[in-house]
């Protein structure tokens, strides 16, 4: 163990857009911006410790058992039979908590990727997923995989089934650029889930599964027009959009600027648009942020390619 | 017009499996067996006539306005501005009516493909679809496209949206073999639709759209294991299976023989299984037919590759 002492690594893990309009609870993709960073160091002192958390405005717990990053690392170390490892974590939150951007997923994935890198990739990358999902359970009260899976694996990821867990990395066409806008509103994921109807009409469900099938086909065919036509949600968006002021105006402004599609990122309040180039994505971001300002709502805006690689060592 | 007189063509159009387990109302694929045949001849005498129908046991109307084949041809001729064309149709029904095999779709598509061939492909193939759908409306009281679209275009076809109509030819992996078994039971499509619940739980809907997304991904990746895992239906099959005696035993027997998946073809009573080779498909067909015989139910069995080409001139 002594040989590893003081080895350290810095890891970036990406924000993610869950649901992707027509894929409620089963689809997500990763971006390059924003994302969280973790510096992790192996120490001689047994146990996982959080040295510091920067950028969270004091919101996240420092208790290793309660913080999702350290808790996931503890689970991982137990699973590989090294519960006594000494680990020191510094977390740099570079995105807001509770934003719909997969904030907790990014941190947790960065931590797991870091420990697995330090321990010479003891587990294959996809085997880290259950630990990341347990982290989500701790953070959100729901062990959903639609943020952690794309954060960990990169690109567009389908969670075909939760029980048994079946995660499929879809083809991610090159050149897709995502605009993400986080309006400074409070929308708790738990509330956002609560307002969704638990019964849906078969007619709407048929439309939705036609669209997700169209989207998946569009990704494999790299067919932007088909991707665009498929980015429609007749079930969740009509309800959740009520939590975002002027949602349909924001959507229209994004589409006017050339978005392939526009929707709520995860459970919001962040919104996203997909487009085929950087300039279009920047125009979309600007138009949406400008309209939010007219409503007196400040926001953060990000533009980046869809991230097909996932976490990376910095 | 005289130059064309007496030109004739014989066309085969395939049976189709609609729904494909997890794609209710939006997915279908074509096979090579069974299928219907049409002989069509241009005549000097104005108007569309049915010369004869073979193999229907007198069930289908000979009145050109009521028969789906002739009615679709009449629509087509009107749309291209040649309502006075003389056409004589002979229809060979080579599969049972009301079986869940897309019987009316096969006949209608054969007729439309024949007239369009005789008139030198006046319309591109996909432009024939609306005429075929109108034929389905006449035959089934529903203008569904999940039989006519694959019968016309071949392979696996997605109807992403009905309004506006958006039909996507998915990738069809080579080597998929379909076993089709038609038990001699009466299940009217209208009844089979009536028993389906019009409200579904969001939880079931999420499972279903995870599965259809998995199936589409599996087709593009040519991933048999993923196709197999995705061929699950938590919404329609639990209800419609009640119309087919011992459905779940038949399913288990098919899976035991190595089927990738097993389900109801369209609205039944035909059932189908997908597999990766001819021998497996034959074993599945035999096992299912044998069990049906123990219940005192006779059946027709067919085995063929998935048909990626659609109708063809014989």
Structure characterization notes:
The structure is a homodimer of 314-residue chains. Chain A is of the alpha+beta class. Chain A has 2 domains: 170 residues, Ribosomal Protein S5, domain 2; 129 residues, GHMP kinase, C-terminal domain (Alpha-Beta Plaits). The first copy, chain A, has 10 helices and 12 strands. In chain A, the strands form 2 sheets. In chain A, strands 1, 2, 3, 4, 5, 6 and 12 form a 7-stranded mixed β-sheet that branches. A 4-stranded antiparallel β-sheet of chain A has the order 9-10-7-11. In chain A, helix 6 runs antiparallel to helix 7 and helix 9 runs antiparallel to helix 10. The longest helix of chain A has 20 residues. The relative contact order of chain A is 0.18. The mean pLDDT of chain A is 94. Chains A and B meet through strand 5, strand 8, helix 6 and helix 7 of A and strand 5, strand 8, helix 6 and helix 7 of B.
């Amino acid at each position: 163990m002594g040989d590893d002492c003081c080895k350290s690594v810095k890891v970036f893990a990406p924000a993610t857009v869950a649901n992707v309009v027509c894929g409620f609870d089963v689809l997500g993709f990763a971006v390059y911006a924003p994302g969280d960073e973790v510096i992790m160091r192996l120490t001689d002192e047994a146990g996982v410790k959080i040295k510091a958390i920067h950028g969270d405005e004091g919101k996240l717990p420092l208790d290793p058992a309660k913080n999702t990053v350290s808790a996931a690392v503890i689970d991982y170390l137990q699973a590989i039979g090294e519960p006594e490892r000494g680990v020191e974590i510094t977390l740099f939150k570079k995105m807001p908590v509770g934003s719909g951007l997969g904030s907790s997923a990014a941190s947790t994935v960065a931590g797991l990727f870091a420990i697995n890198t330090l321990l010479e990739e003891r587990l294959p990358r996809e085997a880290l997923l259950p630990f990341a999902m347990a982290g989500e359970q701790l953070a959100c009260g729901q062990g959903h995989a639609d943020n952690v899976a794309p954060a960990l694996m990169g690109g567009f990821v389908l969670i075909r089934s939760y029980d048994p867990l079946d995660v499929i990395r879809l083809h991610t066409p090159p050149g897709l650029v995502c605009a993400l806008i986080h309006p400074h509103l409070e929308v708790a994921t738990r509330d956002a889930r609560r307002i969704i109807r638990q019964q849906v009409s078969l007619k709407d469900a048929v439309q939705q599964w036609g669209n997700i099938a169209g989207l998946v086909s569009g990704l494999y065919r790299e067919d932007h027009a088909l991707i665009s036509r498929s980015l429609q949600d007749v079930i969740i968006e009509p309800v959740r959009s009520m939590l975002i002021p002027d949602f349909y105006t924001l959507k229209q402004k994004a589409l006017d600027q050339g978005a392939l599609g526009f929707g709520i990122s995860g459970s919001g309040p962040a919104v996203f648009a997909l487009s085929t180039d950087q300039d279009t994505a920047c125009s979309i971001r600007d138009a949406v942020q400008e309209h939010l300002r007219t409503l007196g709502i400040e926001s953060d805006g990000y533009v980046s390619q869809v991230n097909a690689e996932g976490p990376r060592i910095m």
